[in-house]
């Protein structure tokens, strides 16, 4: 019986850990992009490749993500290549775009045009969603605990 009860604690705890991991990754990327926009360092980059990845299928919807691989030279002549998801569909191989980067972390550059409100809204919506998931899991664990102590 104890293994059965542990299931009601372990699974929600793993879901909470996954949500916290996702939240830190989203927040870190948003901070990197915001800092790159604020740094003032820009360079012209060439789009080397554009490709899509798909996830889902079967009983769930299919999600397609457009990626671009860019290459640029930093102010100190280092050549940097990076992959960025969710770029514009109008950028194709061979196009030149402006990238924003931090001089100490040029591999975390972005080719997205500065849009602080959009970044904040996207990050905020993801944080709220993951916060709701975490709260739901905690409430589920408390209710499960109360049910097991009553019986």
Low-confidence parts: none
The sequence of SSEs as H and E is: HEEEEEH
Helix content: 40-55%
**Alpha-carbon distance between the two ends:** 12 Å
Keywords: Membrane, Transmembrane, Transmembrane helix
InterPro entries: DUF3592 (IPR021994)
Protein name: DUF3592 domain-containing protein
Transmembrane segments: 6-27, 126-148
Description:
With 151 residues, the protein is of the alpha+beta class. Helix 1 runs antiparallel to helix 2. Helix content is 48%, strand content 31%. It contains two helices and five strands. The mean pLDDT is 94. The longest helix is centred in the first third of the chain and has 38 residues, at 2-39. Residues 52-112 form the DUF3592 domain. InterPro entries: DUF3592 (IPR021994). It comes from Streptomyces coeruleofuscus. The chain crosses the membrane at residues 6-27, 126-148.
């Amino acid at each position: 019986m104890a293994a059965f009860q542990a299931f009601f604690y372990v699974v929600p705890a793993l879901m909470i850990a996954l949500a916290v991991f996702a939240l830190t990754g989203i927040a870190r990327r948003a901070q990197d992009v915001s800092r790159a926009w604020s740094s003032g360092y820009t360079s012209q980059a060439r789009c080397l490749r554009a490709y899509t990845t798909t996830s889902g299928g079967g009983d769930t919807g299919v999600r397609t993500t457009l990626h671009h691989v860019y290459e640029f030279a930093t102010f100190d002549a280092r050549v940097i290549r990076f992959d960025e998801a969710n770029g514009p569909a109008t950028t194709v191989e061979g196009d030149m775009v402006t990238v924003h980067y931090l001089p100490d972390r040029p591999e975390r550059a972005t080719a997205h045009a500065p849009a602080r409100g959009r970044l904040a809204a996207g990050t905020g919506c993801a944080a709220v969603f993951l916060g709701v998931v975490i709260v739901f899991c905690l409430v589920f664990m408390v209710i499960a605990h109360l049910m097991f102590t009553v019986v």
